[in-house]
Recover the amino acids of this structure.
């Protein structure tokens, strides 16, 4: 079927009208202070546009990738705005507009469960400010004090007379007013939209198929590109024979991209891929071609006993305590590389001319994509623009700090000037060119006194540092504090135990395989290391796993509250059904307190059925409880798939897993029943999308150890013959 021929303006307006949010096209007409959206509607402030039909357009700078941030942020603006929720829609500002206006939307980054918890205050103030301006405009029209007017459901009422008007009728006048210098936010007790399980704003376009993803974006005259980069990280292109494929169907161009990749540009992506597969390419793989999983493991193993390490926590004398302990317990754990493997592979569409570079891209950080565009194009900021595709087909951290695919798309487009080129990675390219969950080992050592009390604990981590590879400027005297997520002494990842003698350190051992922020990041392995070892210590002490933890948690009431909640719901301490075994885990992550209790049965020695997982979370405030429940269940799919099935191995310097046949995920039939306990205690804002992922795996592993009598310490479980059923 031929693509309809439409001009760019028609395309932008049309896609914006159905919610694709590709551009705002803000205009500031000469002689007026009113900023207008593409359709001419007035901007009340940078967060709120009101259309004449009373539609409330909420600007959202963060990215939506299935987690619900779009709806949650809109809820917060609508709450303070006193908007009619049935008339609320959203759109994305572009990073180019943000830069031109001195970044009024703040941070565009969406990751680390920061979308709501780090922007809640200023977006709520945006809604409150717009409400006051709309009320003032109505009061001015009526010639009455604004204090006599109220707003609710997008209607303004003059209380003494009962006169009413709507937001759409006063929006034009409100947009001309000077915003108030200060606004007072609602008390949470007054919330009517925040805290309610309102329907998501992005569901309908997904259900109807109207949603535009980067994968299926079309532009007039667009060509398609497929790419291959050297499979060994750090390698380069040595040579390629473009003449072999230039006569193949649809092929328009064969180009080198940087010093490490080659791309074919064709009329269709399939034609580009077929030609790329047929083209002879010789790689200069360099010294990293000698690296394997075994050599990497040996490097990490050496770090477990190395004298030098970065110390994060040092209380008392943990090592000295072991000498006098009644019992010493040691265990070594290992966690592998893992790929983000989103359903939508990396892609970006770029159009380059000497005067303008435009990029359409699914990204977790519009500003980072914008920066990559500037660097690759060589053009100044006022000649570049990035349009975020409204919904991302999976991010999990891969589309946040890393925009190598944007750089590639722009470099290709520069060699085909004036023509939009959509670069789409194949699944194989997506698998072997990842930014992987860091590989890590841990040596856990604990000392118990004669009464079974934990008197000393040493947690030695050995493995990669994400920050050293991605944000080296964030290292502190060479130390990567993010490595200690979940076992920090303070902050958003606080350790929930008080141990009189405690040492937690990291022997940094970086590899040529690039690490990345993988959903949950370092809490995934740290929760397994710590919470599984706590069960090992409880067993050595001859104590119940829950009671052993409780003794160490008296000074950590919020940690203890979520742990008690899941234990109580599960009936911990009471007999489980025949053949069913329970396991516990808890953690603080991304500012939220989380815990899980898993119920597991193992049959035939190797067939594991995760029957039920109860999860409790205290995120401070729960913006949309329905979305939180879905995020918990979704995070468990990710966490359990990882611990049971997912591992990226290295052979001859390259990642071996190239598709889902060797990098599997849970099936629907394997999904356990998930029960959520949402218990917001107020006073702080924690994350939702990432915190709960880390407790599923250790809770299941602890239940499996009770079921089998065996403790597994290296992952994934498939390597030990275990199968999910």
């Amino acid at each position: 079927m031929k693509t309809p021929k439409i001009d760019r303006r028609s395309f932008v307006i049309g896609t914006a009208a159905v919610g694709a949010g590709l551009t705002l096209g803000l205009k500031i007409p000469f002689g007026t202070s009113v900023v207008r959206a593409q359709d001419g509607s007035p901007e009340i402030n940078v967060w709120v546009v009101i259309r004449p039909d009373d539609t409330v357009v909420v600007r959202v700078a963060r990215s939506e990738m299935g987690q619900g941030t779009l709806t949650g942020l809109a809820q917060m603006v609508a709450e303070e705005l006193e908007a009619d929720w049935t008339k609320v829609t959203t759109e994305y500002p572009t990073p180019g507009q943000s830069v031109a206006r001195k970044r009024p939307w703040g941070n565009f980054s969406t990751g680390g469960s920061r979308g709501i918890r780090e922007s809640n205050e200023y977006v709520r103030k945006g809604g409150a400010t717009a409400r006051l301006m709309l009320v003032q405009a109505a009061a001015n029209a009526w010639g009455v004090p604004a204090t006599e007017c109220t707003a609710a459901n997008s209607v303004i009422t003059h209380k003494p007379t009962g006169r009413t008007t709507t937001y759409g009728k006063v929006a034009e006048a409100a947009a001309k007013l000077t915003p108030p210098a200060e606004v007072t936010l609602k008390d949470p007790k007054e919330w009517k939209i925040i805290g309610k399980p309102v329907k998501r704003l992005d569901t309908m376009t997904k259900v109807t198929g109207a949603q535009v993803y980067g994968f299926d974006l079309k532009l007039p005259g667009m060509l398609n590109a497929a790419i291959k980069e050297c499979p060994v990280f750090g390698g380069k292109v040595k040579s390629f024979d473009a003449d072999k494929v230039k006569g193949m169907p649809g092929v328009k161009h064969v180009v080198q991209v940087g010093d490490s990749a080659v791309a074919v540009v064709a009329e269709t992506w399939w034609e580009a891929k077929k030609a790329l597969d047929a083209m002879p390419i010789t790689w200069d793989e360099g010294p990293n071609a000698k690296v394997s999983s075994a050599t990497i493991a040996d490097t990490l193993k050496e770090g477990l006993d190395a004298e030098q390490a970065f110390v994060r926590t040092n209380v008392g004398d943990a090592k000295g305590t072991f000498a006098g302990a009644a019992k010493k317990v040691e265990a070594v754990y290992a966690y592998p590389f893992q790929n983000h493997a989103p359903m939508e592979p990396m892609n970006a569409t770029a159009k380059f001319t000497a005067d303008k570079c435009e990029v359409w891209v699914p990204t977790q950080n519009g500003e980072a994509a914008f920066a990559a565009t500037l660097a690759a194009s060589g053009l100044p900021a006022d000649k570049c623009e990035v349009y975020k595709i409204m919904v991302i087909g999976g991010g999990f951290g891969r589309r946040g700090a890393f925009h190598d695919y944007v750089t590639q798309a722009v470099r290709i487009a520069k060699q085909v000037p004036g023509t939009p080129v959509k670069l789409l990675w194949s699944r194989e390219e997506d698998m072997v060119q990842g930014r992987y969950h860091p590989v890590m080992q841990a040596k856990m050592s604990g000392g118990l006194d004669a009464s079974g009390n934990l008197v000393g604990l040493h947690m030695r981590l050995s493995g990669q540092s994400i920050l050293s590879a991605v944000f080296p400027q964030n290292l502190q005297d060479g130390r990567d504090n993010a490595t200690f997520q979940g076992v920090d002494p303070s902050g958003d990842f606080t350790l929930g135990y008080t141990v009189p003698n405690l040492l937690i350190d990291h022997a940094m051992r970086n590899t040529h395989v690039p690490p990345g922020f993988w959903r949950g990041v370092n809490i995934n392995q740290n929760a397994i290391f710590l919470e599984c070892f706590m069960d090992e210590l409880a067993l050595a002490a001859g104590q119940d796993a829950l009671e052993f933890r409780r003794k160490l948690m008296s000074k950590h009431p919020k940690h203890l509250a979520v742990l008690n909640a899941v234990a109580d719901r599960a009936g911990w301490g009471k007999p489980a059904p025949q053949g069913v075994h329970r396991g516990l885990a808890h953690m603080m992550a991304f500012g939220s307190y989380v815990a899980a209790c898993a119920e597991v049965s193992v049959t035939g020695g190797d067939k594991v059925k995760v029957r039920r997982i109860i999860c409790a979370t205290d995120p401070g405030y729960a913006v949309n409880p329905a979305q939180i429940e879905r995020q918990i269940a979704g995070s468990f799919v990710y966490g359990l798939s990882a611990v049971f099935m997912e591992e990226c191995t290295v052979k001859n310097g390259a990642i071996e897993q190239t598709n889902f046949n060797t990098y599997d995920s849970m099936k629907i039939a394997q999904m356990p029943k998930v029960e959520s306990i949402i218990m917001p205690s107020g006073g702080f804002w924690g994350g939702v999308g990432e915190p709960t992922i880390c407790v599923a795996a250790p809770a299941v592993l602890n239940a499996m150890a009770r079921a089998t009598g065996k403790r597994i310490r290296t992952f994934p479980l498939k390597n030990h013959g275990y199968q999910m059923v």
Remarks:
- The two ends are 43 Å apart (CA to CA).
- Residues 1-32 have pLDDT under 50 and may be disordered.
